[in-house]
Amino acid sequence: MRFPEDVPVLTDGVVTLRAHTIDDVEPAYRMCQDPVMQQWTTIPVPYLHEHAVNFLTEMIPNGWRTNTMWGWAIEYDGRYAGTIDLGDGEGGVGEVGFAVSPEVRGHGVMTRALKLAVRYAFDGLGWERVIWRAFVGNYASRRVAWKAGFRGLVTIPGGGRARGVRKDEWVASVGRDDDLEPQGNWWTVPVLEGGSIRLRGLRDSDAQRVQEACSDERTQHWLSGMPSPYRLEDAEGFIKTRLHMMAGGEGVAWAIADPATDELLGNVSVFNLNNRMDATVGEIGYWMHPDARGRKVMTSAVELLIPHAFKPVAEGGLGRRRLMVKAALGNSASAHVAEANGFTHVGTERAAIPRRDGNYDDDLVFDLLADEYAGR
Ligand SMILES: CC(C)(COP(=O)(O)OP(=O)(O)OC[C@H]1O[C@@H](n2cnc3c(N)ncnc32)[C@H](O)[C@@H]1OP(=O)(O)O)[C@@H](O)C(=O)NCCC(=O)NCCS
């Protein structure tokens, strides 16, 4: 192909992909000074003016000429807003990379640009599959990929590389016959208040309290899957992986906080939301910091989240039909939280919960149905 004559102009009426011009060098250079850009991409750091000149006037034009890379300027609101490129494509499979300037982020620009480029990969280049890769933790990029229909996300430890350093990587893809629409749910954490508590998302600053709560003897006894000893880095990892759980549609986790001080008192979550057999069920799990126990805080926390769990997804809820709580035989405080919230003990799974001493506890199963809850 000739550059720029043969570069197709792609537009959805709001965002336009077009060939780069020399005028894009300055805004592209400025975009690459952004620390977020440097953190999540493989651009050189420090990023010099000559890097932008080389990328836009050599690499991208040569990519088109040699049929190895197809890069466009993203135009939005009459200006250069970023760059998107497709690369490889051998055997009908290639990769996409993208970035937009900080001032236009959060307006859906990248999602639109990505859909245009992916459509071109299938219809213009005849590809079968487009692969997206991002360093673990780049939720903005992951969300763009999710909104554009990328699916099957996996994490590859050390799969990525930036400036000579290996990094954990997420990989997902979309195929030629797939809808370019989100697959599965990406849950958010609404703030729920009432009963003298606040449920909110977990924050990095909660790590110390999480560590204290999870190192506690009773927590360690009843939740035998928890690391032991439970270190601060376990707490930090727990907080980080809650985002991953929500983005993957598996569950939602709240910090139970004191509304006056915002200090973490405990944790409550609804999980197993991706059950393949029945995606209308959910299980509630919880633990309390020892200094907040015995004040009915967990009973109030579960009471606050039940209506959210039963509310339809279209109204911002979790769309559940049936909620479960499981409590090991003997964990009467946990069973009490379920019963106080109107759950019914429906059975006991025998020898179902491993203990640290190698034995197994029976597991009491409680459930609550959306229609019985609505009928109260
Ligand atoms: C990733 C990037 C291209 C997104 O561009 P954008 O124009 O803001 O994308 P969109 O507006 O289409 O969508 C971004 C979505 O991510 C969400 N988002 C942003 N930061 C987030 C975060 N930390 N956690 C969760 N979601 C986040 C936004 O709310 C938005 O979703 P919404 O529309 O449902 O509210 C931009 O952040 C960027 O250029 N980052 C630096 C370069 C980069 O990371 N490139 C990708 C490398 S793999």
From TrEMBL:
<keyword id="KW-0012">Acyltransferase</keyword>
<dbReference type="InterPro" id="IPR000182">
    <property type="entry name" value="GNAT_dom"/>
</dbReference>
<protein>
    <submittedName>
        <fullName>GNAT N-acetyltransferase</fullName>
    </submittedName>
</protein>
<dbReference type="InterPro" id="IPR051531">
    <property type="entry name" value="N-acetyltransferase"/>
</dbReference>
<keyword id="KW-0808">Transferase</keyword>
<comment type="similarity">
    <text>Belongs to the acetyltransferase family. RimJ subfamily.</text>
</comment>
<feature type="domain" description="N-acetyltransferase">
    <location>
        <begin position="197"/>
        <end position="371"/>
    </location>
</feature>
<feature type="domain" description="N-acetyltransferase">
    <location>
        <begin position="15"/>
        <end position="172"/>
    </location>
</feature>
<dbReference type="InterPro" id="IPR016181">
    <property type="entry name" value="Acyl_CoA_acyltransferase"/>
</dbReference>
<dbReference type="Pfam" id="PF13302">
    <property type="entry name" value="Acetyltransf_3"/>
</dbReference>
<dbReference type="GO" id="GO:0016747">
    <property type="term" value="F:acyltransferase activity, transferring groups other than amino-acyl groups"/>
</dbReference>
